[in-house]
Structures are given as structure tokens and as C-alpha cells.
Write a structure and sequence with these properties.
The complex is a heterodimer of chains A (93) and B (677). With 93 residues, chain A is an all-alpha fold. Chain A has one domain. Chain A contains five helices and no strands. The longest helix of chain A has 24 residues. Chain A is globular and about 45 Å long. Chain A starts with a helix and ends with a helix. With 677 residues, chain B is α/β, with parallel strands linked by helices. In chain B, the strands form four sheets. Chain B has a six-stranded mixed beta sheet with strand order 6-7-8-3-9-10, with helices on both faces. In chain B, strand 4 and strand 5 form a beta hairpin. The chains are: A mainly alpha (93), B alpha/beta (677). At the A-B interface, helix 1 and helix 4 of A face strand 6 and helix 2 of B.
Chain lengths: 93, 677
């Protein structure tokens, strides 16, 4: 689990700033813009950057028995959980 | 103790129509270290990653204890893999990496207690040196709860101290695990492995005796193990000078030398420059000389022809040397440029397009040469060239060009690739070299040259049968030998009897032998010398203010220095001290010859007309006397150009003058200016 969190953290280093930018561009719809990007474009961009620039780093996770689909699935689930939490916190009522 | 077994079989992998791995089979047990050797691009990393399960193969069977596993890495309890490049996250502390990576507490503590790791626990991974980082990576991989560990280049680019440490970790780890390791540092692999494989041309061969088999498969140069040398020999220059090159008709500028022109049959600037480069760099390293000689012989005997039309090479060179600005890489702009060229042709577009089209053909041709140069029975030298071609062709960009069809839309991209990257220049350089080697073989065959045999003897030996001058038509061959106990040849003979031509032939044979080239003789056995000096056509030097005699004195002084410096020299002196009076010349020649005859390890030929000094040299050891025969037929001199034993007292000067009618001419000249007549 710690390894999955580490991968999630590494992707978030790109996903979060990018999605914040998207949220800012969305103006009043900040949370919507941020969430949409965080779950789609920002995440894909982060995966793309990791794939192209940090290819060897995947072996850290492979050696822990984690395959790419498992890692990506975990990231999608964690992202969804985070967005769900954010929506609950800001629009829960 | 029960051991686990990893068995891989039938691994086949094609990559862009090229077979990377072909039906690979191997077996490894725990407590064993299996070393896999192979050149760059031979597929070692691909093989390890296929076994690990992260790279797909066309076909494969990976069995652990007889049970087939398609992706052994999944689950994390069968195999661990150390990739070539660092795989640890950069921005977290070492102790956190260890905590995340090693689940078992005892093993984790074991890693943290390591001398290097304990020093850096609170540092990020970027604070570690290359060696520290690699040893941490190996330590982490070895401590994973797996049965087999695959290490891809664990020793590369790190200092010997860490190589030793990694070796110790592997030896300690093999008590409970099996290891598959690969690296370019073959000595580390050999030292640490219990069994060896060589991956070559996609085939994995088991190596039973690395000392003979690795040399036989041209993985290491001949003599690396069997010759008792620790490392492949360096290319040490053979010492010579301008005067020697001038004497041997190679002259200062090689493009004008008669001997250079003999081998320069390619007719294009690239190979000519390469030939000049080789011609200027004689060697004294026996392995390098044998390697070049064998490569020339192999190319000639096997009829390997670099086989590209001259005009293609000229078009490529013209394009690469042109000052045309680089085309835009955008495919759309490339299409527009092509359309524009269709309606309004320009020389610039034509040059670029023709150049690129020829380069693509050239690249395809170079690819087709690889198997020919790598065939069974080839030499290490050619195998090296084939590896170089293969490596360069697999570089980014070049590979894509080979795999795609020619397209107008790619012209800008290719223009950038060909004119900016060094790969094309590397390939052209290899082509030039092959072209030169082929030309040398052809020339040698045409002129009846032979391949020299290099003797591995401490003694200085030169034995030549049928020596001739390559630039003399219908030259008379001669047998000649010199060696340490017979180190100075005192050569005499009448004028025009062939002394100087013989001395030049000898110098040329020695020089060519030290280039690894065929020599103008029927057979030649020689030890490798450190240098060659000849004094055949020495003139005065007005610039330095030297008279002819003083030039000769300075030349002898320079030769003395070079003998002192190089020890094992060949020195050829033709008609010493012509620039002084006969008595003086005889005395000085005698003195110099006596001293030279005492120099050990070097060989000398001294030719002279001062036959009288031979009497005073007769009792000295190490001197042999040779002469060129001469006889008078119909009152005219007749020469055999054959070298014989003994001293010649023949004098042909007067007869030659008579033959040429000099005396009559002078008499006529004198009478025409005499007022009394």
C-alpha cells in the first residue's frame, strides 16, 4: 500500500498543479474545472510524463509485484475518492 | 539443501523485422550465479525483462520449479530485477525508501545497518554518489523475498571499490537465491559467475571455457586471455619521420606519394582521407597489426564488397558538406516545399532530396553488411565494425528511417537527423574503412603482395623471400634476412646495380608490415619493431644552413637519439657521407658502422661504395656482407639485380659514362667553344 501511495504522490506532483490551473481557468466553476481535470486530463498528463521521463522508476513498483494496470487503477480510485471527499466537503449540504 | 530452479526456453523476440532473440534456452538454480555476456544491442536487457515479465516476447516459456509463469514479477515473490538505470524515487529519504521497499523487518534492518546506507539514511537518493546508489539498489533488490534476482549491469560506471562490494553482496546473496547477471565488465561477470552464457546475434550460447570460447566468438580480442595480457592492447605508434617517408616515396603529403596512389583506387574523397589517416599511423602493437591484416585478407578472400556506387557516396558527401540551411521539420511544410519544387525546381531542394535518398539506400546497404561481417570465421576487427554498424543503426531516428518508406513529408525531419546527428558520420567512417580495406586487398592481389607473419620473439628478426619494389615494372625479387646475431648488413655494389631500389623495397616492406598491410614479397616473417629510419635521398638544407655533409651528420645524430629512445629500430643508410672527401668518408663510415654493429635489438643496412673498409669489418661479429652482381657484356654494364653474399669491387661508373656518350658530348662541347678550331 505504501508503494501505491508513493506512486500516487509522484503523479500528483504533476496532476495537482495542472488541475489547479484548470480550476483557475474555469473561473467561478473552480471545483468543477479542478475535479474534471484531476480525474481526466491532469491524470493522463501525469501518467504520460511518468511514462516518458521516469520509465525506469516503474521497476520500483514492479519489484513490489505491482503491475501498471494495478497502479493506474489505484490512482483512479484514489483520485475519485479525493474528489468525492472535496465535493462532500464543499457541496455536501 | 533443496534448490529452486528457473528455466526459460523458446524465447523469441522480433523487433522491427530484426530477430533480437532466437529460441533462447537457459537454466539457473538457487546458489548459482549465471553470467550473460554480450555486446551493446545484443538483447541482454530485453532478455532479462522478458524473463521478468515486463517486456512481451513473441514466444516464451518461463518456469519456476517446473511451473510456468507468464508474468513472474506480479505478486513480488518470484523474481526481482535491477534495471540498468536508477529506479529509486529521487525526492524521498533513503530510510523511507528502505521502509517502503523492504517489508520484512529483519531484512530492512540488515539494509539500514549497511555501512553506506547508514550514512545516508536521512538524505535523499540524489545525495548519494553513483557507486553508493548502485550498491544500495543491489542491496535492496537482493533483500526482496524472491527466489531469483536479475541484475542488469550492476557494475557499470562505478568505481572498483563498489564493484568489489557488489560482488560480495552477490556472493553472500547466492546462498539462498539464484542470480542472473549481465554487464559489459566481462571480468566482473566472469569472476562472480558459476556459469556463463554469451548472447550473440540473438543466440544464447553456453560458454564452457571462457578463455578460448570468448576469443573464438570475437567477444574479446585474440590474446586477451590466451596471450596473457590483462587488457586489450593499445594502439602504440610506430616511430618514423618525414625523411623516411620521403625516401620510401610516400612523401610528406600522402595524397601525392607514389606508394599511396598504389592503394588509393577508390577515387572518392572519404576513403582517400581514411587511407591517408591509416597510412600516417603505423603501429607497433602486434594484435592490432594482425587484426588489420586478417581483416584485409578476409574481406578480399570472401569477396566482401562495401558495394555502393561512387556517385551515391559523392552525392551524400556533397549534401552533408553543403551550406544549405536546414529544412523545417514540420511534415506539412515539407509537403508544401515538395509541391513548390515540382512547379519551380531549385538546386538546393534537389541536393537535399538526392542526398537523403542516397543516405537511405546507404543505411539499408550498411544493414545488409552486418551479417557478412559477423559470419563464422570472420575476424575480431570486422566483428567490432559490425557491432558498431548495428549499434549506430539502432539509434533513435536512424532505425525509424530504415523502417519507414521514403516520404516527402519526412524530408525536413530527415534533413535535421542526417546533418545534425553524429550517427551518419560514424557509419560513413565505417564504410570508408571497409572500402579502404577492400582496396588494399585488391591492390595486394593485383601486384602479387603477401600477408606478413608477425613473430612473437624477443629477438629482432626480418626474413623476406622474393622482395620486390612495387613501383618497378618486372622487378627482380630478392631473398633477404637480418636478425639479432646478424644485425648489420654491409651492402656494396656498382652504380645502378639496384642497391637503392633494394633498400627502398626493404623499407617499404617494413613500413607496410607495420601498417598491417600486405607487403611486396613472396613471404615475410618479422618481429614488430618500434620504428624505422632511412637515409636514402638526403639533401642539404639551405633553410637551416646545413651543407650536405652536415645534414648527414645531423641525420646520424637524430638516428642515434631515436635508437636510444625506441631500442628496437630498423635503420637503412644509403651511401653514407657522400658530402665529404673519399678518405674522410671511408673513415667516418667505418667508425659509424662499427658502432652500429654493436647496438643490440636493432637491425641495420649500410650501403656504401667504400669497399675498402670491409676488410676492417670482417672480424666483427653481427655483420654480414652482401652485394649486387654486375658483369660486362659487349663492353657495356649488365645487371642481374640479384643480391649475393660477399663484397663487390665492381666499378661501373666509367662504363656508364661511356654508354651514355658523355665523354663524346663533352669533347664536342669543348671543341665548339674553342676559338682555335
Amino acid at each position: 500500500m505504501k508503494a501505491i501511495l508513493l506512486y500516487y504522490l509522484e503523479l500528483s506532483l504533476i496532476n495537482v498543479p495542472f488541475s489547479l490551473l484548470m480550476g483557475w481557468l474555469a473561473g467561478d466553476q473552480f471545483l468543477k474545472g479542478f475535479s474534471l481535470s484531476f480525474l481526466t486530463g491532469g491524470m493522463l498528463l501525469a501518467v504520460y510524463f511518468f511514462e516518458t521521463n521516469q520509465q525506469a522508476k516503474y521497476f520500483f513498483y514492479f519489484n513490489k509485484g505491482l503491475s501498471k494496470p494495478v497502479l493506474w487503477l489505484a490512482v483512479i480510485v484514489l483520485n475519485a475518492l479525493l474528489i468525492f471527499t472535496l465535493y462532500t466537503a464543499f457541496h455536501g449540504n | 539443501m533443496e534448490t529452486d530452479e528457473l528455466e526459460v526456453s523458446g524465447i523469441t523476440k522480433m523487433f522491427r523485422h530484426r530477430s533480437v532473440l532466437s529460441d533462447v534456452y537457459m537454466k539457473c538454480r538457487t546458489t548459482e550465479v549465471t553470467g550473460i555476456l554480450g555486446r551493446n544491442g545484443s538483447g541482454k536487457s530485453t532478455l532479462l525483462q522478458i524473463i521478468f515479465g515486463t517486456v512481451p516476447a513473441d514466444e516464451k516459456r518461463v518456469l519456476i520449479n517446473g511451473k510456468m509463469i507468464s508474468k513472474p514479477y506480479v505478486g513480488g515473490n518470484s523474481l526481482a530485477y535491477l534495471p540498468q538505470n536508477g529506479f529509486l524515487p529521487n525526492y524521498i529519504r533513503v530510510k523511507n525508501i528502505v521502509k517502503i521497499f523492504i517489508a520484512d523487518k529483519a531484512r530492512r534492518q540488515n539494509v539500514m545497518d549497511d555501512e553506506v546506507v547508514s550514512r545516508h539514511l536521512n538524505n535523499p537518493i540524489t545525495a548519494l554518489s553513483g557507486g553508493e546508489r548502485r550498491s544500495l539498489e543491489v542491496l535492496l533488490i537482493i533483500n526482496l523475498p524472491v527466489k531469483f534476482v536479475l541484475l542488469d549491469e550492476p557494475f557499470s560506471g562505478i568505481e572498483p571499490l563498489y564493484k568489489e562490494k557488489i560482488g560480495t553482496l552477490i556472493q553472500a546473496g547466492k546462498k539462498e537465491k539464484g542470480f542472473l547477471i549481465t554487464d559489459h565488465d566481462y571480468r566482473c561477470i566472469i569472476n562472480n559467475s558459476s556459469q556463463l552464457y554469451l548472447l550473440d546475434q540473438g543466440v544464447l550460447r553456453k560458454i564452457h571455457n571462457h578463455q578460448t570460447e570468448l576469443e573464438a566468438f570475437n567477444y574479446v580480442p585474440k590474446g586477451t586471455f590466451t596471450g596473457g595480457k590483462g587488457t586489450p592492447a593499445e594502439h602504440i605508434p610506430f616511430d618514423t619521420d618525414r625523411q623516411t617517408l620521403k625516401d620510401l616515396d610516400m612523401v610528406e603529403n600522402f595524397h601525392e606519394g607514389a606508394l599511396f596512389r598504389l592503394f588509393d583506387i577508390s577515387g572518392t574523397p572519404g576513403p582517400r582521407q581514411k587511407l591517408a589517416e591509416i597510412f600516417k599511423s603505423p603501429l607497433r602493437d602486434i594484435q592490432a597489426l594482425e587484426a588489420r591484416r586478417d581483416a584485409i585478407k578476409y574481406i578480399h578472400e570472401q569477396g566482401i564488397n562495401p558495394g555502393i556506387e561512387k556517385k551515391q557516396i559523392v552525392a551524400i558527401e556533397y549534401y552533408l558538406d553543403s551550406n544549405i540551411g536546414l529544412f523545417n521539420r514540420n511534415p506539412f511544410i515539407s509537403i508544401v516545399q515538395r509541391l513548390k519544387y515540382y512547379f519551380s525546381p531549385s538546386s538546393e531542394y534537389y541536393t537535399v532530396e538526392t542526398g537523403i535518398r542516397n543516405i537511405i539506400r546507404f543505411l539499408k546497404h550498411m544493414e545488409s553488411l552486418v551479417p557478412k561481417l559477423h559470419a563464422v570465421g570472420t575476424t575480431f576487427y570486422l566483428t567490432e565494425l559490425s557491432y558498431k554498424i548495428q549499434d549506430t543503426l539502432s539509434q533513435d531516428g536512424i532505425r525509424e528511417v530504415l523502417d519507414k518508406e521514403e516520404s516527402f513529408s519526412l524530408i525536413g525531419k530527415m534533413d535535421h537527423l542526417f546533418r545534425k546527428s553524429p550517427h551518419l558520420k560514424i557509419l560513413l567512417n565505417i564504410y570508408y574503412e571497409l572500402d579502404v580495406l577492400e582496396a588494399i586487398g585488391k591492390t595486394a592481389n593485383h601486384h602479387g603482395f603477401t600477408y606478413p607473419v608477425y613473430l612473437r620473439s624477443e629477438e629482432a628478426i626480418v626474413q623476406i623471400q622474393g622482395l620486390f619494389h612495387p613501383l618497378v615494372k618486372e622487378a627482380v625479387p630478392n631473398n633477404f634476412s637480418l636478425q639479432s646475431n646478424n644485425s648489420l648488413c654491409f651492402l656494396t655494389g656498382a652504380n645502378m646495380s639496384g642497391k637503392s631500389t633494394f633498400l627502398k623495397s626493404f623499407g617499404i616492406a617494413v613500413y607496410l608490415a607495420h601498417l598491417g598491410f600486405p607487403v611486396p614479397a613472396a613471404t615475410m616473417n618479422t618481429t614488430v619493431f618500434h620504428g624505422l629510419r632511412t637515409t636514402i635521398n638526403l639533401s642539404d638544407n639551405i633553410t637551416l644552413g646545413y651543407s650536405h655533409f652536415y645534414s648527414e651528420v645531423m641525420r646520424i645524430k637524430e638516428i642515434a637519439y631515436s635508437i636510444r629512445k625506441n631500442q628496437k629500430m630498423i635503420v637503412v643508410l644509403d651511401e653514407l657521407f657522400k658530402g665529404t672527401n673519399v678518405k674522410d668518408a671511408a673513415e667516418v663510415s667505418l667508425m659509424v658502422t662499427k658502432v652500429l654493429s654493436k647496438v643490440p635489438q636493432s637491425l641495420f643496412i649500410v650501403s656504401t661504395h667504400h669497399v675498402e673498409i670491409s676488410e676492417k669489418l670482417k672480424d666483427l661479429p653481427n655483420i654480414c656482407f652482401k652485394h649486387f652482381a654486375y658483369r660486362v657484356e659487349n663492353d657495356m654494364p649488365a645487371y642481374t639485380y640479384k643480391i649475393l653474399d660477399g663484397v663487390s669491387n665492381d666499378r661501373a661508373g666509367l662504363l656508364i659514362l661511356k654508354k651514355e656518350g658523355i665523354m663524346e658530348l663533352l669533347s664536342l662541347a669543348a671543341s665548339s667553344h674553342n676559338p682555335q678550331t
